[in-house]
Write a structure and sequence with these properties.
Low-confidence stretches: none
Oligomer: single chain
Number of helices: 8
Strand content: 25-35%
Radius of gyration: 25 Å
Number of strands: 12
CATH topology of the largest domain: Elongation Factor Tu (Ef-tu), domain 3
Structural class: alpha+beta
Number of domains: 2
Helix content: 25-40%
Order of helices and strands: HEHHEEHEHHEHEEEEEEHE
CATH class of the largest domain: Mainly Beta
Largest sheet: 6 strands, antiparallel, barrel
Length: 229
Amino acid sequence: MTEKPDYRHLFVLLKLAEMGAHRRTARISTEYLAGKLGTSQQTASRYLIELDNKGWIKRTVTPEGCLIKITEAGVKELQKLHSNLRFLMESAYPPSITLEGTVFTGLGEGAYYISKEKYQKQFIEKLGFDPYPGTLNLRLTTDYDVKARSELEAYPAIEVEGFRDEDRTFGHVKCYPATIENKVKGALILALRTHYDVSVLEIIAPVFLRKHLKLRDGHKVKVEVLTLP
């Protein structure tokens, strides 16, 4: 399992780069670094040891101060930070929107639609999972959440095509990858034909969310909806 970078280590790495350590070996005293970081000298020294242990810097201690060079691994971390920041600042859409709603019992139509074979095949192909036959229904209760949900209509979505069988026509569905309660990967679905308005979220996932997350009517649930690049 890959270790997630500590934001403090990235900040120290950034300050070292500001002092030129990504291009050459720089002589930097822990006292001077502490002033740059707004920490104690002891804390600055600890950070350098931790970065050295991570392999992000090469550190040599001398009587005049530390000789520090950011390694190739450290430069890669800075490049990732740069790419992420550039994406955030230049993207036409926010990378995600977090909505909060209250669980309620729906009309029971979710299982009927999700179980349709022509929908199901597309969900598996385009979303990467076979959805549990049913939706988790959440009612948005604040103006902020309703407005944020409305804004999704303008964002690119994964399109699940509609179809016709011998009895009726089934409309196409817009899908947005989502993370439910920061635990389960699923999707928010927006159907063209629905009895619900923009104050309701319909969520699908590869598991029965009510049971998996121990949810009941009235429980509040956070959903992070991911937008497409």
